[in-house]
Design goal:
about 160 residues, mainly alpha, Arc Repressor Mutant, subunit A, two-stranded antiparallel sheet, about 65% helix
C-alpha cells in the first residue's frame, strides 16, 4: 500500500499539465539544466562502468535493487519491478538473462513455497561489489557538485546550509 501511494503521489506531482502556471526565470532554467547535466554525467559513468565488466546497465540496476531492498521487503520480481519502474514481464526477462549468466538465482521462500525470491549468486555478489566500489569512488569525486546542483534547484544554496549548521 505504501509503495502504491508513493507512486501515485509522484505521478501527480510530476504531471506538467497540472503544474502551476507560474513564470520560470532564466536562472531557474539554468539551474535545472545544470542539475540534469550532473545527473546524466553520473548515470553515464555508472552505465559505462557496468558495460566495462560485461553487464548491461539495467542488469546492474536489477542486481543493486535486489541487494539494496529495505529490510523486511522480500526480493520478489514484483518488489524489484517497483524499484526499477519496470513492468513485471520486463523484470522477468532481465532475471532470465542474469540467471543464464549465473549472477542471479531464483529460490522458493522457506515459509511459503509459493513465493519465488531472487538472490545474487556468489559471482553476482562479487560483480556488484566491484561495480559499487567504482561508483562510490566516482561519487566521492562528483557527488558534491551533483548535490549542490540539486540544492540550487530547490533554492537552498551551500551558504544557507553552512549558516544553519
Amino acid at each position: 500500500m505504501y509503495m502504491r501511494r508513493t507512486k501515485l503521489l509522484s505521478q501527480k506531482s510530476a504531471n506538467p499539465a497540472k503544474a502551476k502556471r507560474g513564470k520560470v526565470s532564466i536562472a531557474q532554467y539554468r539551474r535545472l539544466a545544470e542539475m540534469r547535466y550532473r545527473i546524466r554525467r553520473f548515470i553515464h559513468f555508472s552505465e559505462e562502468a557496468a558495460r566495462a565488466i560485461g553487464l548491461e546497465p539495467q542488469q546492474h540496476q536489477l542486481m543493486l535493487a535486489i541487494k539494496g531492498l529495505p529490510a523486511g521487503v522480500r526480493p520478489t520480481v514484483s518488489a524489484v519491478s517497483e524499484k526499477l519502474c519496470l513492468r513485471h514481464h520486463s523484470t522477468v526477462e532481465l532475471v532470465d538473462r542474469l540467471e543464464k549468466q549465473r549472477l542471479v538465482a531464483r529460490c522458493h521462500a522457506e515459509k511459503d513455497r509459493r513465493y519465488v525470491l531472487l538472490r545474487l549468486t556468489r559471482s553476482g555478489e562479487r560483480q556488484l561489489a566491484q561495480l559499487s566500489a567504482s561508483i562510490l569512488l566516482e561519487l566521492r569525486v562528483t557527488g558534491v557538485a551533483l548535490a549542490e546542483s540539486l540544492l540550487n534547484v530547490l533554492g537552498k544554496t551551500g551558504k544557507r546550509r553552512k549558516a544553519r549548521a
